[in-house]
Amino acid sequence: MIGRMIICCLLFSLNTAAQEQDSVSTQESKPNLMERLHQVQQYLDTKAKAKVDPTYIEVPDKPWRVILRYKENAVDVDYSQSVDIPAYNEHADWNLNFEPPLASSIGFWVGYRGTGFSYSKSLTKNAGRYYSISSTGAKYGFNFRLRRFNTKDARFSSTDRNLETGVESEFDSAVIMPSPVWIRSVYINGYYVFNGRRYSQAAAYNQSVIQRHSAGSFLLGATWYQSSFDYSDYTNAAYMIIGHGIHRIKVHQANLGIGYGYNWVPLRGLVVNVMAMPTISVYNRVKAYKYETNYDLSAEQPVDDFGNWNPETRRWANGKTHKPLLMHDNSNSQFDYWDIEPEVNYSMLRLNLDLRLGIAYNWSNYFISTQAQYNNFHYKSDNCKVNIYDAYARLAFGVRL
Q: With contact defined as beta carbons under 8 Å apart, do 218 and 257 qualify?
């Protein structure tokens, strides 16, 4: 009896020891969180290096980057109209130009390989708000930009032609708009690199890789662009009237293009990139919002002929629907305006342009770079035409970790 008890105790002890050993072995073989993260990083690094030709493109062993950036963004907007002025028997082509201050900002970018996030603080007052996001890979790139600003500073110019004599006169002067003009633009761009194994946009623009030898590539690009131009406050009525009632314009535009980029490597660590991509709009929708008013551009008439304005019938006392603008007094409270059906136009084959320049120098785990980009968008609706020129320049210093 005692022998059986001893044997049972021995078997129990051996079984417990075996379970403990299995538990220890399982814990030792199971990787911890840091090991798992290291395995994932190794997998991503191997995948990134397999996508490129190491003779031309080097994928740094240190994948993390911290970059300090200083940026200046410039926008120039031209708004043009043509109108007949019966009061003077003239035809006028006029233009309003808006050029807000340079939007200077300083910030940082933190990311892994070609993906990351950024934050910047504006250094310029009254320059509006500007946001941007970008991401790059061996064969693709993505950019998003949002700019919104308002300004009262403008430049007004016109060329007036007398319809009887043919004599032309010109006018050009800085003006202060009675109320601010709001301008907003959204730019989304994506591109595909055909020779992604030997050519990299990222080498010049975010330094996730290093270009070792000169190479170029054709690129296929797609762009979505939308913007609005708004000066709908009633105090800007004079500009609305000579602009055929238009007080706000919205445009939605989709573009496709084929361009070419080239990375020139004159010496180790230095790369100079030039890229040009003309695009053709495959979708171009312009929506013009309009006001109707109780004033027009007809010749001046005796005041007594009009009397008071009736906002219910939308007629003057003499039964007329419009009063000559030349007779409008800023103190006159009888000025009235109301919304009418907006006009929507579709057109194709608008030519836009995307130009980029990037220079970067790499040494050890550090790099310094500068980039510039220029975009031009234009759209037209009847007698109205708007051109927007958007450009930026950026200086950056970074370290790999």
A: no
Q: Is 296 exposed, middle or buried (0-12, 13-18, 19+ CB in 10 A)?
A: middle
Q: Are 265 and 292 in contact (CB under 8 A)?
A: no
Residue type, 382: D
Locate 362 and state its tokens: 């790499």
Nearest to 230 by CA among 77, 344, 392, 389: 77
Report the alpha-carbon distance of residue 35 to residue 45 in Å, rounded: 15
Encoded amino acid at 244, one letter: H
Percent above pLDDT 90 for the chain: 39
Q: How do strand 323-324 and strand 295-296 relate by DSSP bridges? A: parallel
- DSSP code, position 213: S
Contact 332, 234 (CB under 8 A): no
pTM of the model as a whole: 0.74
DSSP string computed for 305-351: GT--EETTTTEETTS-S-EEGGG--TT-TT--EEEEEEEEEE----E
Q: What is the pLDDT of residues 149-183, one digit of tens each?
A: 888 989 999 999 988 888 999 999 999 999 999 98
Residue 86 carries which DSSP code? G
Angle at 385 between CA 388 and CA 132, to 5 degrees: 20
| List of E strands, 163-208 | 168-193
For residue 184, give the DSSP letter: E
Query: Residue 137 phi/psi, 5° resolution?
Result: -140, -170
Interatomic CA distance for residues 186 and 292, integer angstroms = 29
The answer to whether the CB of 72 falls within 8 A of the CB of 220 is: no
Beta bridge partners of 60: none
C-alpha distances in angstroms, 9 versus 3, 17, 285? 10, 12, 88
